[in-house]
Structures are given as structure tokens and as C-alpha cells.
């Protein structure tokens, strides 16, 4: 069994990010940085965000950092505005940040505010209606509230002539490493995953070729079935370990779908190995042997023996269906990891060709999709 090269799994570590460029948004200006901090005996990564917010003191904001290419937060925290400023610490992370551009987002939502703050915002910021969008309302407001009118107009002018909405956001990028660093890291990850997918396919193929021993031939591949079982588990660990360690060591991986598919394939291989072991050496093998003994009795079966035979046959059918499900899940996940839309080398044609070649080699009884 091939072993993955541990060096291919090494992640690049950056102690400091480049200064993040601020985004001059409607209501926000912000910047972010990445530092290593000491917490107890451990060293952790921490993202620091600071910025300016055109909101009154006490306004609640959410600040978070996202994957480079995915619209979900790695982590987020809530902070409050104080003297038009906000600060956030996001983390800590034991994992490393691989090179890349990470969007850092600050969000305001009116509905997240307390009732008291909503009343303050409603009055102070004129959320309900914008002065510049309704001339009649503007004229009436200027007449009824001249001091607030001047305050609001200055606020609107300072914010590019636009009024507050009930949802606002601003952003900047946390830049870790250089574009060259990011490209090199992606190439290393792809190489690790390619080796992992090939090794997993080899492991799967070997498992599929295990057959129950012929009568009188002894056990398969070992005098002790447990020795075969443990040896295969060692090979499985040699494939799964580097992939798991790579994924666990980073806050984000550039090919998340590949990691997901390989993880699913490998976990299902454990279930398939248990099924293969049962068919070769365990309960399923015993059921099959007992069915053969009952069939040998021919017409001399008693009613109870016929029931027993039919029950065991049903158990074996269900067992075969379960095993077939594991096989299909493994094969399709490996194909998706290698050639799927978000795979290592996307190609629908190569995906289908690889699955068909695997079917010819291993004799699958299910239809390729």
C-alpha cells in the first residue's frame, strides 16, 4: 500500500498578515490584521479588526471573517459602537491561516438592536424615511425640527448623500502571504489530495477483491482473520491520517469539496471492511454456510427449517444491499474528488470513464450515474 508523503501535507505558516486595505463603505471604514498571540502555554492566531462606524454609541454590530471563496463565516463576534469606533478580536485559532485574501465583514441590522436602541436609531438616524428622497417630508421636517434637520443633512452629506438602511455592511480583506504563496499552497494541497485519492482508490480496490474462502481452503490471506483486519486498518490509517491532519491544521482549505468527498469515502470504507469481514469470516459467512446445509437437505426440510432458511436468505439480501450502498458511496465520492465540478481535475468525461473502468475491474452490480 502506498503511503502519502508527509511533507506534502505541510502547511505554510505566516505570523503576520499584510495590512488589510480598508473599504470606504457607506457607514463603515475598517481594517484587519492577523497576529500570533500567547495564551497559556500555547500559541494561537488572532484576527484584529478596528474601524469607524457612523452609528450612535451602543449600536450592536457583527464582525466576522469569511472563507476566501465561500459565503460563510469562519468565525464572527458581536461588538458595540463607542464614540463612532468599534474593535473586534476574532479567534483564537489553533490552526494556521493558509495564504489568501480573507473577506472581513462588519454588518448592522436594525432588527438585532434592543428596543431602546431601535428607538434611538429611529429618531437619531431617521431610518423610517430619508430626508433627501422625499422633498415634501424634507421641507416639513426642516420646519418642525430645524436643529435635527441640520444634523441629519450633515450626516447624510458625510455618508455620500445616502440615508441609512435597516441593513448595512462594510468590508476589507485580510491578506495572508503573497499571491505566489497562495498559488504554491494550493498546488501542494492538490498534490496531497491527488495522492490521497489514488491511495484510497487502491485501498478500495484491494478490499473489493477479498472473497470468502472456498470450502476446505482455510481463511483468506491469513491464518487469523483478525490479522488481516488489523493489517487493512493500518493501511487505511496511512491514507486517512495525512488528509485529516492537513484539514485539521488549517482554518480553511482551498479544495473543501475534495476533502469532504475523500473523508466520506474513507469512512464508508470502514463500514465496507466490516461487511467484507463478515462475509468472509463472520456472521454473513455463517449464514451462507447454514443456508447451504439446509438446502442440502432438499425436500426433507421441516417447516421450522424452511422458515430459518428463508429468514437467513432475507438477512443476506439486506446485507448485500447495505454493502452495495457502501460500495457506491465510496466509488462516487472518489470520482467526485478526482474529477467532479469542485474536484482536483474537473472533467465530467474523465469522471464517467474512471467509474466505468472501476466497474469493469471490480464488477459492480449497480448502474453508473
Task: Please provide a written account of the structure.
This protein is α+β, with helices and mostly antiparallel strands and 369 residues long. It has three domains: 18-127 and 164-175, Immunoglobulin-like (Sandwich); 128-158, no CATH class; 179-362, no CATH class. Helices cover 49% and strands 18% of the residues. It contains nine helices and seven strands, in the order E-E-E-E-E-E-H-H-H-E-H-H-H-H-H-H. It has helices spanning 115-124, 135-144, 146-158, 179-208, 225-249, 256-281, 283-296, 303-339, 348-362; strands spanning 28-39, 42-53, 60-66, 73-80, 85-93, 100-109, 167-176. Strands 4-3-6-7 form a four-stranded antiparallel beta sheet. It has a three-stranded antiparallel beta sheet with strand order 1-2-5, with no helix packed on it. Strand 1 (28-39) and strand 2 form a beta hairpin. Helix 2 packs across helix 3, helix 4 (179-208) packs antiparallel against helix 8 (303-339) and helix 7 packs across helix 8. The chain is elongated, with a radius of gyration of 31 Å. The two termini are 29 Å apart.
What structural keywords apply?
369 residues, alpha+beta, four-stranded antiparallel β-sheet, three-stranded antiparallel β-sheet, 9 helices, 7 strands, disordered N terminus
Amino acid at each position: 500500500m502506498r503511503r502519502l508523503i508527509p511533507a506534502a501535507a505541510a502547511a505554510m505558516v505566516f505570523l503576520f498578515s499584510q495590512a488589510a486595505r480598508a473599504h470606504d463603505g457607506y457607514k463603515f471604514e475598517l481594517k484587519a490584521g492577523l497576529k500570533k498571540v500567547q495564551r497559556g502555554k500555547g500559541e494561537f492566531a488572532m484576527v484584529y479588526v478596528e474601524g469607524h462606524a457612523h452609528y450612535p454609541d451602543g449600536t450592536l454590530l457583527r464582525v466576522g471573517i469569511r472563507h476566501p471563496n465561500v459565503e460563510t463565516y469562519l468565525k464572527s463576534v458581536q461588538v458595540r459602537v463607542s464614540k463612532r469606533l468599534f474593535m473586534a478580536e476574532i479567534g483564537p485559532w489553533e490552526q494556521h491561516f493558509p495564504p489568501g485574501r480573507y473577506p472581513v465583514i462588519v454588518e448592522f441590522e436594525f432588527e438585532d438592536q434592543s428596543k431602546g436602541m431601535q428607538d434611538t436609531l429611529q429618531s437619531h438616524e431617521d431610518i423610517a424615511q430619508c430626508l433627501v428622497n422625499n422633498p415634501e417630508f424634507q421641507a416639513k421636517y426642516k420646519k418642525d425640527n430645524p436643529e435635527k434637520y441640520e444634523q441629519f443633512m450633515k450626516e447624510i452629506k458625510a455618508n455620500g448623500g445616502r440615508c441609512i438602511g435597516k441593513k448595512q455592511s462594510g468590508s476589507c480583506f485580510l491578506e495572508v502571504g503573497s499571491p505566489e504563496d497562495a498559488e504554491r499552497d494550493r498546488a501542494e494541497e492538490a498534490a496531497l489530495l491527488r495522492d490521497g485519492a489514488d491511495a484510497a482508490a487502491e485501498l478500495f480496490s484491494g478490499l473489493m477483491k477479498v472473497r470468502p474462502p472456498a470450502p476446505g481452503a482455510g481463511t483468506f490471506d491469513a491464518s487469523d482473520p483478525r490479522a488481516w483486519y488489523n493489517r487493512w486498518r493500518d493501511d487505511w490509517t496511512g491514507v486517512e491520517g495525512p488528509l485529516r491532519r492537513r484539514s485539521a491544521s488549517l482554518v480553511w482549505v482551498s479544495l473543501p469539496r475534495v476533502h469532504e468527498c475523500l473523508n466520506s469515502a474513507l469512512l464508508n470504507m470502514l463500514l465496507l471492511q466490516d461487511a467484507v469481514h463478515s462475509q468472509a469470516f463472520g456472521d454473513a459467512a455463517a449464514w451462507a454456510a447454514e443456508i447451504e446445509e439446509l438446502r442440502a437437505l432438499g425436500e426433507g426440510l421441516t417447516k421450522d427449517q424452511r422458515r430459518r432458511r428463508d429468514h437467513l436468505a432475507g438477512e443476506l439480501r439486506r446485507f448485500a444491499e447495505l454493502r452495495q450502498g457502501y460500495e457506491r458511496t465510496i466509488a462516487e465520492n472518489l470520482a467526485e474528488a478526482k474529477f467532479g465540478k469542485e474536484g482536483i481535475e474537473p472533467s465530467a468525461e474523465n469522471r464517467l470513464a474512471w467509474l466505468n473502468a472501476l466497474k469493469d475491474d471490480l464488477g459492480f452490480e449497480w448502474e453508473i450515474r
